[in-house]
């Protein structure tokens, strides 16, 4: 009788009962565990991460995040071994909570500063300012500069690279396969470069947020999301009786554009944050360097575009999908300096590029033999070397 009653119960009711049972059990464990386990011995574990540094005349403002298990009370602050007056931090900062300290420091432009935060228990937490420079204010002019910078390093180079489409359309099947291999080499270098940068950045995040796990999380989520998008697009194209959809080559170009766009979002984030703290000098050489470097991304977008005519608006849309996220990245990076967010977005770019490589990989095989020939391997190597060589022009 019990089995028959359970079989007639709606599934959502069973799910709710299961969730309530688990919640009650966890609550009981939490209450009983707190009463039965002994108190922790030893000093408090105090950890603070500096999420943002803002320098204005006579003031250094630090945004702190408690990444440790215990509350942290700021006692004193020293700058270059000299104690300074500060405001903020009157109340303890709880776990994962944040606080702001405003230090009265007559800092000098271009000088390094070491900020030492002393907690109430005597622990010292240090933060290095390599080169002091006034933090740009996010006014209309500054936003316009960031939009222009994002267009210089993202939109314009990608569109320039797409100008190679007429030459690619006249190439033979073998040449196109080599160019697809070149694209895989370009994307593989981007993924490797972003992985190195993301791991370094994850080391600056608090362990409470996962560190490198944030990069892995972003990569896995992006890979799964783009896989679902690819399957959806493929399903729409192959539905019987439906209107003709985008050809396979154009669909692959769209996936490449999305992958590169997510990468450029992370790249723009790094550029914007570096400029905001004075670690990036904007000049003609930097703009030209990024133009040459990212032009190869535009080439990668148009390689799979089919030989038959494609409207200019579609091509422009592909270029904007690949390049415009750099604008959003520079705006976000210059106003919200958060290492955790940066690591997550870089991870998303890595996962997106990895999924695109999986999409392109079958096209590298020769149709007759089913193998990847030496020409395709040469294209892979050429793509990696091309990205490395153009990357030397970009000093960020």
Topology:
Blueprint: H1 2-8, H2 11-36, E1 48-56, E2 59-66, E3 74-79, E4 82-83, E5 86-87, E6 98-104, E7 113-119, E8 124-129, H3 140-161, H4 165-169, H5 173-202, H6 212-238, H7 248-276, H8 284-302, H9 312-323, H10 325-335, H11 339-360, H12 374-391
Q: Please tell me the total number of domains.
A: 2
Q: Report the count of strand segments.
A: 8
Distance between the termini: 71 Å
Overall pLDDT confidence? 80
Q: How much helix is in the residues?
A: 55-70%
SSE order, one letter for each helix or strand: HHEEEEEEEEHHHHHHHHHH
As residue ranges, the low-confidence spans are 242-247
Number of helices: 12
Q: How is the quaternary structure best described?
A: single chain
**Major sheet size, sense and barrel closure:** 4 strands, antiparallel
Morphology: globular
Strand content: 5-15%
Structural classification: alpha+beta
Radius of gyration: 26 Å
Q: Can you list the strand order of the major beta sheet?
A: 1-2-6-5
Task: Report on this structure.
The chain has two domains: 48-129, Immunoglobulin-like; 140-391, no CATH class. A hairpin with a 2-residue loop joins β1 (48-56) and β2 (59-66). It has a four-stranded antiparallel sheet with strand order 1-2-6-5, with no helix packed on it. A four-stranded antiparallel sheet has the order 4-3-7-8, with no helix packed on it. It is globular and about 70 Å long. With 396 residues, it is an alpha+beta fold. The model is unreliable at 242-247 (pLDDT under 50). α3 packs across α8 (284-302), α5 packs across α12 (374-391) and α6 (212-238) packs antiparallel against α7. 58% of the residues lie in helices and 12% in strands.
């Amino acid at each position: 009788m019990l089995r028959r009653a359970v079989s007639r119960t709606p599934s959502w009711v069973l799910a709710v009962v299961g969730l309530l049972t688990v919640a009650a059990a966890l609550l009981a464990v939490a209450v009983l565990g707190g009463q039965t386990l002994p108190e922790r011995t030893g000093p408090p574990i105090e950890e603070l991460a500096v999420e943002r540094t803002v320098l204005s005349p006579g003031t250094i403002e630090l945004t702190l995040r408690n990444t440790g298990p215990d509350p942290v009370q700021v006692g004193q602050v020293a700058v270059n071994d000299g104690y300074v007056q500060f405001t903020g931090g009157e109340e303890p900062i709880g776990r994962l909570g944040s606080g702001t300290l405003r230090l009265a420091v007559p800092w000098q432009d271009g000088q390094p500063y070491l900020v030492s935060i002393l907690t109430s228990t005597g622990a010292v937490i240090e933060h290095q300012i390599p080169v002091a420079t006034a933090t740009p204010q996010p006014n209309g002019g500054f936003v316009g500069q960031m939009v222009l910078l994002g267009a210089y390093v993202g939109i314009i180079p990608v569109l320039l690279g797409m100008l190679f489409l007429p030459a690619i359309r006249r190439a033979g099947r073998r040449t196109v396969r080599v160019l697809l291999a070149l694209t895989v080499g370009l994307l593989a270098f981007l993924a490797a470069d972003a992985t190195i940068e993301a791991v370094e950045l994850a080391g600056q995040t608090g362990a409470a947020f996962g560190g490198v796990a944030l990069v892995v999380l972003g990569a896995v989520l992006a890979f799964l999301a783009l896989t679902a998008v690819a399957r959806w697009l493929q399903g729409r194209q192959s539905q019987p009786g439906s209107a003709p959809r985008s050809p396979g080559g154009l669909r692959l170009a769209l996936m490449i554009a999305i992958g590169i766009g997510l990468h450029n979002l992370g790249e723009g984030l790094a550029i914007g944050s570096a400029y905001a703290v004075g670690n990036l000098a904007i000049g003609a050489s930097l703009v030209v360097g990024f133009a040459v470097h990212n032009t190869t991304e535009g080439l990668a977008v148009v390689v799979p575009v089919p030989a038959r005519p494609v409207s200019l608006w579609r091509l422009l849309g592909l270029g904007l999908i690949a390049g415009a996220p750099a604008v959003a990245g520079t705006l976000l990076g210059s106003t919200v300096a958060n290492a955790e967010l940066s690591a997550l977005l870089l991870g998303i770019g890595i996962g997106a590029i990895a999924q695109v490589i999986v999409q392109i990989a079958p096209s590298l095989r020769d149709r007759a033999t089913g193998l990847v020939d030496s020409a395709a391997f040469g294209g892979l190597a050429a793509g990696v070397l091309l990205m490395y060589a153009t990357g030397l022009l970009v000093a960020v």
